[in-house]
Amino acid sequence: MSERLAVNKTYKQFIGGAFERSESGRSYPVVGAGGELLAHAVQGSRKDVRDAVVAARSAQEVWAGRTAYNRGQILYRVAEVMESRRGEFAAEVARAGDGCDGSMAAAETAAAIDRWVWYAGWADKFATVLGGANPVAGPYFNLSVPEPVGVVGIVAPGEPPLLPLVSRLAPVIVSGNSAVVLASERCPLAAVTLAETLALSDVPAGVVNIVTGHRDELVPPLAGHAAVDSLDLTGCGAEQGADAARQAAATITRVVSASTAERQWFDEAAQSPYLIDAFCETKTVWHPKGR
Amino acid sequence: MSDLLAVDASAGTADAVAGVRITPVDAVGLEQRAAALCARSIKTTSKGAALDLTVRVMDLTTLEGADTPERVKALCARARHPDAGDRSVPSVAAVCVYPELVSVAAEALAGASVVVASVAGGFPAGLAPLDARLAEIAGAVAAGADEVDIVLNRSAFLSGRYQKAYDEIAAAKQSCRPAHLKVILETGELGAYDQIRRASMLAMVAGADFIKTSTGKIGASATPATALCMAEAIRDMAEQTGRVVGLKLAGGVRTAKQAWHYLVIVGETLGSDWLGPERFRLGASSLLNDVLMQRAKLGSGRYQRREYFSVD
Q: What dotted CATH number matches A13-288?
C-alpha cells in the first residue's frame, strides 16, 4: 500500500459563524519557532474587519438577550469541546511557541480550558457582585446593573498563542458583548482552532469573529470603526496602541489594556470579575418606593 | 404585436402594439450577465458619484398602514435634505405615499425639486373594481400627485387575459393625466423571465411611462436578473418604436452596494441617458441610510455606525 498523502487543514478566518478566506484572497506563511512552515493563514483586509464588525453588531443583541444562565452553559460547553481536543491544541501551541516544549504547551492548554470554565461560572453571578442596590436620599429603590457595552474589538496578545487569547476573550463575551478578535500575527493557528470549538458550542454565529493577518493593516480600521464600542489593545505595541487609542477617541470608544499583573497569564491576577466589568456599562434604575 | 395577439384573439389594439416583438429570454445567460455586471468594482470618485446619483434617483417610500401625516412630513423633510448635517447631499427624486397622504406630501414639498408619487389603483393587489381603481388614481392626481404607481392586474395577466390587463393600464393612463404613470409588474409573482418580458412589453405598449419591479409587499422583490430583463425590454422598445420608458426598481434594495450594482446594469444596458431621475428610479425606504453611511465613510475614511443616522 502506498504512503498516505498529508491532509492539511486550511486555516481560515471565522466571521459571522462561517470559516472564510479573505475577501482580498491573500494568505501569509505562518512559521514555527524553528522557522519551519506550519501553514498558510488568511491575510485579512480592512474589509474583512468591516464584515466582522457587521456580523458582531447583528449578533450582539441576540447574545445579550440570552439568559445569563444560558450564556454560562454555552461558555462551559466551549470548555468541554476544547477539553476533547486538548491534544490538538497542545500540539499547535507547542509547534508555534518559542522554546515551548510539550509539557508547557499541555499546561497552557489546560489553563486556557480552566479559564473558560472559570468565566462560564461568572455568567450568572457578575451582575450580583458588580451591581447592587444603592442607598439614596429619597423614596426610591435605586439599582445598578452592569450591561454589556456592545461590540468589542480585541487585539489579541502575540504570545503565547492560546491562554492570553482566552483570557481576554472570555470576560468580554460572558456579559453579552460580541467580539471581533485580531488573532496573534505570528501564531494565529490556535485562534482558528479555538474558533472551531466555538462553532461547535452553540455560541451564536457572529458573537465571536476572528480575523487573521497583519496588525499594521487591521488595527487602524478596527480602532477607527464607529460601530465598535470598546477596544482591548493588550496585543498592540506602545506606538501602535497609542495610534489606535487616538483613532478610538474620535468615536468615543472605550480603550482597555491589560496591566502588567494581568499579563502574567498563568497567574490568578489574569482572571478577574473586574475584567468583565471593564466591558460593561452600569445602568442605574430608579423605582419609586411605596409607603 | 403578433405575440400578444396570438394568445388573445380578441385583441383589438393591433395598431398600438404593432411591431413590438416579444423574444424569448435565455434565463441562464440573463442571470450570468446580471451576476457579471454586479461583480464590477466601483471605487473612490466613481463610488462617490454613484452614491450621489443613487440619492438623486431615489423614491423615498413609506407605505405602511400606520403612516401618519407627521411621519410623511418628516419623510418629506428628509427628501429635501437627506442629511441634515451635510447639505452637499442632493435631494431625492420623489416621495412615494398612499393617496390619502398625497396632499400632506404635496404641501410639505411645495417649492422643492422633489415630486410626489402615489400608489393607487387598488395597491398592492390591483383587484378592486376597475371604477374604484380609476377613481383612486384620478383622486391622487387631483390631490397633487405628480406620478402614480399602479399595479399590473396579475390575475388577468397570468390567466392569459392580456387584453384585459392592457385595457386597464390604458384606462389608468387616461385617468392619471397629466401625471406620469408607473406600472408595477410584481415580478416575483410572474414566475418566469419570459413572463416578465411579456408583462414589460404589455405595460409599455399600453402607455406606462415607467415600468417598476415590485410593490415591496411580497417576499420576492427586485433582483439583478429581473432588472436586466426589464432594462432589455425597455431597450428593445426604444429601438423598435423610439418610445422612451423609464425603469423603477423597488423592494429589497437596502444597501448602497446593491444600488450601484443596479446603476451598472442600467448604464450598461440602456446607456447613460437612463442614469437620471427622468428615466430611472430606485424605490426604497431603508436604502437612504446606508447610502449616507457609505458617503460618510468615503469622506472620513471611518466605518460608520447605524445609530449616527436617523431611524427612518
A: 3.40.605.10
